[in-house]
Write a structure and sequence with these properties.
329 residues, alpha/beta, seven-stranded mixed beta sheet, 11 helices, 15 strands, 26% strand
């Protein structure tokens, strides 16, 4: 028996409950960990509200990131033993493998022995943000030294991870945020430039920054009317990678920018990295190297107790956080 967060109907943070549940042992190919910290993601709020790409089966668990200590392993698992300190890359299904629990079970291929000096809280804040950003910037776009990359929703955990990865490669990260309130924090986090989309002409400002070569990559979580000025500032042959849809407004197709510059507009989910063992192995190696040499360092916005999961989700949906929200057990 162990405590787990579940919900029995869709709704706001208040539908989340901490319940005591039976926890079966891990089966073939699985590892069970005693969770010490959880990383929160917007996907979990979407599942809770009934608007995620996956559907909940009630009562449903949730959660995509955790760090802790190996409690037990499946009878065919040889790469981990009880007592190992580990974190998890996000599973393809959080309904099948929910992380919000004292004991949680995951496929062995998603378990990672992270640098022990990282600590549980930081380790719980690693894999979703860095895998998402790596998949777009490195695996798909092949971002290179000197390339200009525009990063929307830059103060999110994924946005901050993208800034760090761009700097590690030697690219030029341009952070887009709605207002100037977070400008100083974004510059301190490694952004080469900050554009406040509610206060500046985005397209003109990006062209001023990028110069004649333009913005090679746009890494966008928002969509909406910004597609027009973003693509207007892109270089010929550039790529816009869309991984979210935060804007409530329709997203127009910028036909003439796409035609005139031979642009690529591409949808992306981190699942395509997670489900491909070879791509996932390369991503893990890149991220672990960055964690070890200090070029990648999770930024934690705020930490909550497990018992305060409802309040943690309220904070998640406030959109005022800078970095990752972590819950400790």
């Amino acid at each position: 028996m162990a405590r787990a967060v579940r919900f029995h109907q869709h709704g706001g943070p208040e539908v989340l409950r901490i319940e005591t549940v039976d926890v079966p042992p891990p089966t073939t190919g699985e590892v069970q960990i005693r969770v010490r910290a959880l990383g929160l993601n917007r996907a979990e709020a979407l599942l809770r509200r009934g608007s995620y790409i996956e559907s909940a089966t009630f009562p449903s668990g949730l959660g995509l990131e955790a760090a802790g200590v190996v409690e037990a392993v499946g009878n065919d698992v040889t790469s981990f033993v009880r007592g190992d300190i580990v974190s998890i890359a996000p599973p393809l299904s959080m309904v099948r493998w929910p992380a919000y629990a004292e004991l949680a079970t995951f496929p062995a291929e998603l378990i990672v022995k992270h640098p022990p000096e990282l600590g549980f809280e930081a380790a719980a804040a690693v894999w979703m943000q860095y895998l998402t950003a790596y998949g777009a910037l490195v695996d798909i776009a092949g971002l290179g030294r000197g390339d200009v990359v525009a990063i929307t929703a830059a103060s999110s955990s994924v946005g901050l991870a993208a800034i760090q990865i761009a700097n590690r490669i030697g690219a030029v990260p341009v952070a887009l945020t709605r207002t100037s309130i977070k400008r100083r924090a974004l510059l301190d986090a490694g952004a080469a430039h900050v554009v406040a989309s509610d206060e500046e002409l985005v397209g003109a400002r990006l062209l001023e920054i990028a110069g004649s070569k333009g913005v090679r990559l746009v890494f966008d979580a928002v969509g909406g009317p910004a597609f027009e000025p973003l693509t207007a500032a892109m270089s010929p042959g550039g790529i816009l990678i869309e991984y979210g849809g935060l804007s409530p407004e329709p997203t127009p197709f910028p036909l003439f920018n796409v035609l005139g510059k031979s642009l690529t507009l591409r949808g992306y989910l981190v699942h395509e990295i997670i489900r491909d063992p070879a791509r996932l192995a390369k991503a893990k190696a890149f991220i672990l190297d960055g964690l070890s040499d200090g070029t990648l360092k999770p930024i934690i916005a705020r930490t909550f107790r497990f018992e305060d999961i409802v309040e943690a989700h309220r904070f998640l949906e406030s959109n005022v956080q800078f970095g990752k929200i972590v819950v400790t057990i």
